[in-house]
Design goal:
The chain is an alpha/beta fold. 34% of the residues lie in helices and 20% in strands. Strands 1-7-6-2-5-4-3 form a 7-stranded mixed beta sheet, with helices on both faces. Strand 3 and strand 4 form a beta hairpin. The two termini are 24 Å apart.
Length: 207
């Protein structure tokens, strides 16, 4: 039931013309990452010539948790559901010297990268998933990272929201860093309350 309700929550966020996305605090083994992957797949089939981004703490994390499972789902599709044209994944080098992955599929670009302050800056994205976003506080400025990604989701000429940002992370109480993560996460939780919209119909964080 909880997973069904979460899927309905994602659909609600997708249909919101003013919201830029959502933030999810999750327990371990709750299936949230798997649902996020399937949500991305649904959008890949829904849109053409769109860009999708995945980011996590490291190259290993983003590949194992998001990118490779994403490709595995596609490999398991029945032949009649697969598009007839497909380009296989290619390795790329990021500006910071780390390796990322991207795949051109069904006319859409799916790009997975390690943690980066700029992220997908300069690209117009249909969806961005940042996994374990509240655990990066000791590496980069979380607020700056999120604000940069928001710019990728808005058409600068019309101001229209063209993509969504999914912020997902587990939380705990095991050390000082996690306590700091919870404090930062709660800011976005409280400022993203859909019952407190401004005169433009948006939350303070626009999530």
């Amino acid at each position: 039931r909880e997973q069904s309700e979460y899927c309905m929550f994602l659909e609600f966020c997708e249909d919101d013309e003013k919201g830029l996305g959502y933030t999810t605090f999750k327990p371990r083994r709750a299936g949230v990452s798997s649902i996020e992957i399937m949500f991305n797949w649904w959008k890949v089939f829904l849109y053409d010539n769109a860009k999708f981004g995945m980011m996590s703490l490291s190259n290993t994390k983003v590949k194992e948790v998001l990118f490779e499972p994403f490709l595995e789902v596609y490999e398991k599709f029945p032949a009649y559901l697969k598009p007839k044209s497909e380009k296989l994944k290619t390795s790329i080098k990021l500006s910071d010297g780390t390796e990322g992955e991207e795949v051109d599929m069904i006319g859409n670009l799916i790009k997975a990268i390690a943690l980066s302050q700029t992220g997908f800056d300069g690209l117009k994205m249909r969806h961005i998933t940042i996994d374990e976003v509240w655990k990066i506080l000791n590496k980069i400025d979380t607020y700056a990272l999120i604000e940069t990604q928001k710019k990728c989701l808005i058409d600068k000429f019309t101001g229209k929201v063209v993509g969504k940002l999914g912020l997902i992370s587990t939380l705990g109480e095991d050390d000082k860093l996690m306590a700091k993560a919870i404090k930062t996460a709660m800011y976005y939780w409280e400022k993203s309350n859909y019952e407190n919209l401004n005169e433009f119909g948006k939350t303070e964080t626009k999530l």
